[in-house]
Write a structure and sequence with these properties.
This protein is an all-alpha fold. 70% of the residues lie in helices and 0% in strands.
Length: 458
């Protein structure tokens, strides 16, 4: 592949690809959590409300973007502006991945620019990323990823070009911004250690402290801020007390296995997967054995194939350790893959780039990947056109989950389809007689008396 000299051509290519796949997203509706964090949340409806909440609220930078979108609608629909910004964030993340791959020390036999372009294109097209892009409140993942990758790139650029202001200053600033979007960005300094482990030339504690002290100081300040914030502390304690460590470990290992399958075979994407809480080793021993084998592969690949080690360790680091101690309320969501999965795409792009010398074979593989991933993403984006379509698709993948039927019932109710809503609520209650949210929604729909008071809402 001839080298593309003008960066603007790369940006144009990524932009056109995003528009080709995500044009439907611009007309997508508000969905599910969008109502809780945007539509019905008055704190993001004016700058003064945002400012009063930002000093003691969660994710102030994320909420600021919601506020600006709310105050500056595009056309006749507020949703369009939200979706447009989400697409711009997606473009920014794809371009940062392109730049990061160019900074990776890949083998001389690999066409680095071709690998970087293909990696970023696969990232743009991957169907698992639709939840972080098309789902408006999925912005928490994509915007955090934008600043997370910017921090990593600034660090790497500073190292390679011997520019301390980039290595510490700009990288530290982007890290801070990512923390103000989503708390899980606190893992960034660990990814810097991972970069040094896989691609660094000298690995010493003193050298690492000298290069990364700004990032670790920010981690300390973030932990202190989280502990002093009543709302953060309440959420952390709530999460930590949900299950014991062994239950968290088994459940999250199963979640990682599920997310791997979603990334490698994205035909069953689901906004509300029905993953169990696992309490015994026997329920997940196959997944543990597989994780051990993959970890050993990463260890033994460090010298000869560090890019493979980087991809494996990155995926595990972003999806497992934090959630063992602070488990998610939902065990797993596809939008977790937005940041965790891109190094795997680099490995795939390298494999395609290095598969013999037959140009047409490589071209065929590239076109097959682009066509397959793009088609699945287009089809998935259709599910986000309405709440009814979204929850109907979720029921296909989680047919035994009560909450999915309750959410479908609520969507039907809002659309005026009362009989369909009634049936969905009844199915939710049949699957879980303790689902008082569904009971309350059914009572409101039919005006039947309740046995006991319950909370209203979705």
């Amino acid at each position: 592949m001839p080298r593309i000299k003008h960066e603007s051509l790369i940006v144009a290519m990524l932009t056109l690809t995003i528009l080709a796949v995500y044009w439907q997203a611009l007309s997508g509706a508000f969905q599910f959590d969008d109502y809780n964090v945007i539509v019905d949340y008055s704190k993001v409806h004016s700058l003064s409300s945002w400012l009063s909440d930002s000093l003691h609220g969660l994710r102030p930078l994320l909420k600021l973007t919601y506020t600006l979108n709310w105050l500056m609608p595009v056309g006749n629909s507020r949703e369009t502006g939200f979706h447009l910004l989400n697409l711009l964030i997606h473009l920014g993340c794809a371009y940062l991945i392109y730049r990061l791959v160019l900074r990776m020390p890949l083998p001389g036999t690999i066409n680095k620019q071709a690998t970087a372009i293909l990696s970023s294109l696969l990232f743009v097209l991957h169907p698992a990323n639709t939840e972080a892009v098309t789902y408006i409140s999925g912005r928490s993942s994509s915007l955090m990823t934008l600043f997370f990758l910017a921090s990593l790139l600034a660090y790497v650029y500073g190292l390679q070009e011997d520019k301390r202001n980039w290595q510490s200053g700009w990288s530290g600033l982007f890290f801070l911004l990512s923390l103000l979007v989503k708390e899980t960005a606190i893992l960034l300094p660990f990814t810097l250690l991972l970069w040094e482990l896989c691609f660094g030339k000298v690995w010493s504690v003193r050298g690492l402290v000298k290069k990364q002290w700004v990032h670790w100081c920010l981690v300390l300040l973030a932990v202190i801020a989280f502990l002093l914030s009543g709302r953060h502390w309440h959420l952390m304690m709530d999460s930590a007390s949900t299950h014991n460590l062994s239950t968290n470990l088994y459940s999250q290992i199963n979640a990682v296995s599920y997310l791997v399958s979603q990334y490698l075979w994205p035909l069953h994407l689901n906004i509300d997967p029905d993953l169990p809480v696992l309490t015994t080793y026997s329920a997940v021993w196959k997944e543990i054995f597989g994780l051990m084998l993959v970890t050993l592969l990463a260890i033994f690949s460090l010298k000869k194939m560090p890019w493979l080690s980087f991809a494996i360790f990155w995926f595990i680091l972003l999806l497992l350790p934090l959630y063992i101690f602070l488990p998610r309320l939902d065990i797993a969501n596809d939008r977790q893959l937005y940041l965790a999965g891109w190094p795997l795409l680099v490995v795939i792009a390298m494999w395609v780039s290095n598969i013999g010398k037959q140009f047409y074979l490589k071209l065929g593989l590239v076109l097959l990947l682009i066509a397959s991933l793009g088609t699945i993403s287009i089809l998935r984006n259709q599910d986000y056109q309405s709440e009814i379509a979204l929850w109907q698709s979720a029921i296909k993948e989680s047919p035994n989950k009560s909450r999915v039927y309750n959410n479908l019932g609520f969507a039907y109710d809002q659309a005026g389809e009362k009989e369909a809503a009634k049936q969905a609520y009844e199915k939710a209650i049949a699957l879980d007689s303790g689902n008082w949210l569904a009971r309350n929604n059914l009572q409101k729909l039919t005006d039947l008396p309740l046995d006991e008071p319950v909370q209203t809402g979705k």
